[in-house]
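Table 4 source record.
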Amino acid sequence: MGIEIFRKENWDRWMDDEFIRQDSRRMDKYKDKCLLEYIAIYGNDLAEEWAMRELRVSECPVSVGGIEGNRDIDKADQRWLVMREQVMRETDYWVLEKAACEAPRELARFAFSRLTGCGRVLPGVWHEIEVTGCGLKQGVGRSDIEELCREMMRKNGPLAEEAAAWLEELAGISDEELAELAAPRTERSWDSDPVEKLKRLFLDTCTDETPDAQPAVSGSILLDNVIREIYDAYIFNKYAGIYKWGSSLILDLTMKPFGSQVIRWFEKRGRRPVTLPDTVRLVLSVCGADTAGFTDEKIRGIARTETEDKLGHGYYIGLDLLYGFDTEGDAAKAVRPLTEAAEAGNRYAIEELISIYEEGIGVKKNPWLAKKWREKQTEVQEKWTDQTRNP
């Protein structure tokens, strides 16, 4: 598994040489050898210690994949080896496709190579360290490659020109030659189609755990829970749209699996409905649920019903009230659900409360409460840091 550097937040951490204890639990001393060597050389003392332990060595390595030195040019080549190694550890096709279309250029090259078999940095030019060492991902066919290249061209990402050149060259490559680009040693399972995964999680979420149970019908408690998860995903997308930011950390903390997949499906789809009711009806129809009788009023009533999930669902109700994403904004009413979420340990809710009391948003300015929540923020952050470093 490695550290999944094709996820943006992990890529950012890696580029800043930031590693946490949790990373070591997902590594293999053989399959992640270059990454572990890199961490041992550039990580802090704690990271160096556990990387050396994973490598079963008593002295810190002096090279990454045989490349020594700590000059910028040496480090770039060392990263190149790590990326070649880690692209073979990435199991999710859609993560690689997103990286090929949108990631920083050096990361996009490996995702592109893995999904198309193309090893060129620029048409007709080979990098001194072969990208093609990773091989074509198992299960990827000619039609997949053509679709990916067209998508990269449509999005005009960092490798749009390379995609156009490879699409043109692909016509002259036989199926046999294409099959030879995939090496058996690189076989990895790839995640299911996002729609199929959405359907599977829908059934898991709204099917009672009894023998021969069937998916919940309209108006059931289980289906109501699904609607609330879609609501949470909808509010998250609206909030992320303001700040142009969406971290897996906030998703891991506040979002259940089905809601997280709704977000990923919309990212893959590239567009989303404007209103909450349209979003709910679309997702339910994709999952095969009957949406008859789900009026706008009924959907909003179910979605905003408070539950015991103060840390997650309550937090999104608070954001909706604070920013007016799907309701009339009322900052004063947002304080209670945000406070409950903050008391449950949601550090993002704490950040909102600090701003509310410092700036007097919907309430009178209250420096004392702002200070109180800043102290709570420090406490929660330290607790989270301890948990991630010492899981």
